[in-house]
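Structure, all two chains, one model.
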Amino acid sequence: MKLFWLIVLIFCIVWYATMTLYVGIRGFFDIFSMLQSIKENNPNNRISV
Amino acid sequence: MGYFSFLDGTIVVIYLLLTIVAGLAVRKYVGKVEHYLVAGREMNLYLGIASLAATEFGIVTCMYTAQNGLKMGFAGAVPGILQTIAMLLVGITGFCIKPLRDAGVMTIPELFENRFGPSVRWLSGVVIVLGGLLNMGVFLRTGGEFLLITMGYNPAEFATTYRLEIMMSILLIIVALYTVLGGMLSVLVTDFLQFIVMSTSMLVVTILILTKIGWSEIVNAVETHLGPKGFNPFLMERGWEFVLFNLCLQFAVVLTWQAVIQRILSAKSTRVGKLIYVNTSFFFTARFLIPGLWGMAALAVLTPEGIGENTLYAMPKFLSIFLPSGLMGFLIAGMLAADMSTDSAYMLTWGGVIYNDILAPLRKKHPWSEKKGVLINRTIVALIGLFLLFYGLWYPLKGNLWDYLGVTGTIYLSSMSVLLIACCYWKRANNWGAMGAIIAGAVFPIGFLVLQQLPITAEWAQRVGPYKSGLASYAGSALAMIIGTFLKELFVKKSNTEFEGH
C-alpha cells in the first residue's frame, strides 16, 4: 500500500504542476476569447454600473 | 520559525489588489441575466478547468482534508480518489450532464420543471438553497481560523479579540464587491488568477515538506500512530461503510452540486463541459492528498501537546512554524485565493437558484426585464453576503462542524441526484415520486442528527453511525421515487377508469 500511495502522490504532483502551467497559459487566451464573444454578440446590451 | 513578516504582508496586499482590479474590470460585459449567471455560455475548456478547480478548493476543504490526513493517514484521501473516478466516468459518458447541458437550462431545478412540474422545481430550489447556504455558512470562520493560526496567532485569543471577524469581514466585502457587480464573468476571471496562485503555493509547500521532512518520516509517523489502517481504508472501523457512503456522496456531488454543475452549464458546448470534467477529475485526488500530506507532516513534526485537543488546528499550527518568511506570504495569498474563489462562486451559485427557481417562477406572467433581472441577482448576492457575515462569522456555531457539513450536504445531494437520474433516464418517473424522493432524502440525515442529540436515542444513533444514515438517505430517496411513481400511476389510472365508467 505504501508504494501505491507513493506512486499516487508523485503522479499527483507531476500532473498538478503540468496542469497549472498549461491551464495558466491556455486559460489566459480563453478569457480574452470569452469577453470578445460576449462583446460581439451583444454590442447594445452592455450595462455600465 | 516562520510567522508573518512585512514581506509576507506585501505579497498578500499585491495579490488582493490584483484580484479586485481583475474582478471589477469585466463588470461592463454584463448585459443579460445569462451573462451574470452562466457567463453567456462562452466559457472554454481551460478557463473551465481553472474555475472548477478553484471553486472546489477552499480553506475549509484544506482544513478537513488535512484533518483526515492527521486522523486517518493516507486512507483519508480515499474520498478524493472516489471523486476522481466519479468525475472521470461522468465526463467520459456524459451521464446526466449531457442531457442537462443540452437542455440549455441555467440550474438543475429548471430542468425538473419540464418533467415534474413547477412545484417540484420550486421545492428543489428551496432544498438546494437551504442545504447550500447552511453548508456555506461555516466557510468564513474556518477560513479565518486557518489564516490566523498560520500567521502565528493563538486560537485561544479568538474568543476575546475581534481580529478574525474583522479580517474575514474585509475579505467578504472584497469578494462580494466583484461578485455582485460582475457575476459569473468576474468569478471566472478571478477564479483563473486564484487557480494559478493557489496551485503554485500548494505545490511549492508540498515539495518543501517532502524535501525537508521526507517521505519516510511521514510514512513512519502514519505507521506509528495509525498502523495498517492508515494506508488501507477497509481496515478502519466501519471502513466499508466509509468507502460506500463516500462513493454515493462523490457521485452525487459530481452530478448535482450546483457550484460544480454551473461550470457545465456555463461551458461553450456539451463537449467542452464533458472535457472539463475529464481533465479536472484528477485534481480531486490532489485536493484530498496534498493537504492530507500536510496533516500527516503535522503528525510527524508536532508533539501530542503541540497538536492539542482540536485536531483541526494541527495543520495550520505546523505550517506556522515550518514555513520561511516570503513563502508564508505566498501560502497565505494562495489560501486567500482558494477561499475567495469558493466564496464568490458559491454566493453566485445559490443566488442563481434563488432567482431562477424560487423567485422568477412566481413572475411567469410578468417576467422581469433583463436589466431588472441582473439588478435582482446582484441584490440577492449582496444579501447572501450579509447572511454569511452574520450567520457564519458573528454567530457562534454550536456542535460538531463535520456532522453539520455532512448533514446539510446530504439533505439535498441524495434527493437531487435521484431526481436528476430519474429525470434523464426513467420515462415513467413523475412528480409524486419526485416529491417523495425530496422528502425521504431530507428525513434520514435530519432524523439522524436529532436522534443523536436526544439522550434517550443518542446511544442507538451512535451505533448506527453517520455513514449508515447517509446511505439510508440515498436508498430511501431512490425507493421513494419508485414507490411514489407507481402510486401515482395506480391512483391516477384508477380515477381515470372510474371517470370513464361514469
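The first helix of chain B runs from residue 6 to 25.
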